[in-house]
Amino acid sequence: MVLKTLEFQKHTHIPYSVTRAKYFSNGIITENPIQLTSDEIKSIISLFFCFKFHYPNFDDSKVPEIITILNERNLVFNITRDFGRHMIENLDNYYKGWLNHIEKTTFHFDKILKNTEIINFVEMALLDFMIIRNWEFGKFFIQEFSKIIIDSTTLERNSLSIKRALEKENDYLKKIGEKILESDENLETNESLLLVITLQERIIKNTVLRYSYTLTSYIVRENALELSLKIDTYKKTLSKSLNLKWSIDIDKGKGKGRGRGR
């Protein structure tokens, strides 16, 4: 089977809190089986994808993380959620038929998060394909995360001069890494790598390899919560990095040469 690259389409996400409130009456959830709308079920499935992607073997110890995902205020988890939704919108005919069946099913809403068919669907129609789509997730994550941690004004002001400086480097990734560590020497290795790839994506586009996107996917999968807690740190680090002097002074050392000619 040939797996096509994802087409990112506009969609309507319904927050879990909105769907949940819809089926509450006087603070008590309805006991009658309900049929969700297409956007409601797709939105819930995208949340399933998020916590199964980050916590494949979640148990009671992961309840706080699951609640965080369902609250949908965590910017990192929300990127994963959105990628899951794009996968849903790109299903092939077989899995699209399965989804249509789920959309016609009635649920007890208070038990929907433990629904076996939805869990199986997420694992088989979405997660099983991540071994192939990891690079696409990494690219999508970098593009979305960069919008959060990079100030567009600072980037616009400095990107051209930085790009010119990097074009003169034999190893521009090393140069980016040096500037990031110069801005914050306390970063963990995986954090530095993520920020290097982020700047590379925004400054010298179309140079990021699939390997780097795949590496991003693994970093995010294992460290999503930690990354989300340090967003402000990354903003400051990249702002400082972008404002550093990246080029070598080409006139350095020319003074002596001029002096001899006098």
Q: Can you tell me about this structure?
A:
- This protein has 262 residues and is mostly helical.
- It has a two-stranded antiparallel ribbon with strand order 1-2.
- It has helices spanning 16-22, 38-54, 63-71, 75-89, 93-103, 116-126, 130-149, 152-167, 172-183, 189-203, 210-229, 231-242, 254-260, and strands at 24-25, 28-29.
- The longest helix is centred in the middle third of the chain and has 20 residues, at 130-149.
- It contains 13 helices and 2 strands, in the order H-E-E-H-H-H-H-H-H-H-H-H-H-H-H.
- Strand 1 (24-25) and strand 2 (28-29) form a beta hairpin.
Indicate the overall shape.
Answer: elongated
Percentage of residues assigned to helices? 55-70%
Indicate the structural class: mainly alpha
Q: What fraction of residues sit in β-strands?
A: under 5%
Provide the low-confidence segments as ranges.
Answer: 250-262
* Order of strands across the main sheet: 1-2
Would you report the number of β strands? 2
Q: Tell me the distance between the termini.
A: 75 Å
Average predicted local confidence, pLDDT: 91
Q: In oligomeric terms, what are we looking at?
A: single chain
The tally of structural domains comes to: 2
Biggest β-sheet description: 2 strands, antiparallel
